[in-house]
């Protein structure tokens, strides 16, 4: 399907990079490069622990075996939730999550806290990230690459192949 100018319509083009990151925090967190840039931004805002906690919870959900789950649960608790945590996240109800729960871990034991952090990032940090120099400079570099002579000639070749 082509638009009036003969270009492939956008419904067949998949978004990538900064365009995809800008559509949702979920898309940003699915892209390793997006996570890297978001972490870089959060580090400057002194809130990198939020995304690190979120990522640790995602990894925890995939953990197999009770012993491994106990170890990872304790690591998450000690790193992010304990009153002595090195990278403590600011969540409601963290005091109600006592160390005793670490003895009987389950994949979704941190879900409510993870959701709180996700919403904090989504409604606070994420919107600032999209306006940050880190995001805007990365977007600019992507656009320059897309508009480079090499990219254009490849696109024209592809366009000739598919539009004949």
TrEMBL record:
Residues 24-135 form the RGS domain. Residues 143-164 are annotated as: Disordered. It comes from the Eukaryota. The keyword Amino-acid biosynthesis does not apply. GO terms for molecular function: G-protein alpha-subunit binding; GTPase activator activity. Keywords: GTPase activation. GO terms for cellular component: cytoplasm; nucleus; plasma membrane. GO terms for biological process: regulation of G protein-coupled receptor signaling pathway. The keyword Membrane does not apply. This is RGS10 protein. It comes from Piprites chloris (Wing-barred manakin).
């Amino acid at each position: 399907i082509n638009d009036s100018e003969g270009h492939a319509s956008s419904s067949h083009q998949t978004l990538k990079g900064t365009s995809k990151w800008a559509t949702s925090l979920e898309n940003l967190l699915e892209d390793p490069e997006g996570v890297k840039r978001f972490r870089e931004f959060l580090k400057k805002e002194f809130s990198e622990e939020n995304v690190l906690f979120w990522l640790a919870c995602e990894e925890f959900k995939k953990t197999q075996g009770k012993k491994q789950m106990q170890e990872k649960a304790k690591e998450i608790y000690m790193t992010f939730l304990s009153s002595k945590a090195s990278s403590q996240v600011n969540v409601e109800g963290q005091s109600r999550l006592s160390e005793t729960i670490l003895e009987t871990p389950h994949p979704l034991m941190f879900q409510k806290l993870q959701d709180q952090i996700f919403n904090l990032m989504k409604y606070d940090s994420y919107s600032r990230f999209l306006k940050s120099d880190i995001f805007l400079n990365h977007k600019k570099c992507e656009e320059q690459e897309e508009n480079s002579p090499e990219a254009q000639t490849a696109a024209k070749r592809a366009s000739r192949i598919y539009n004949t």
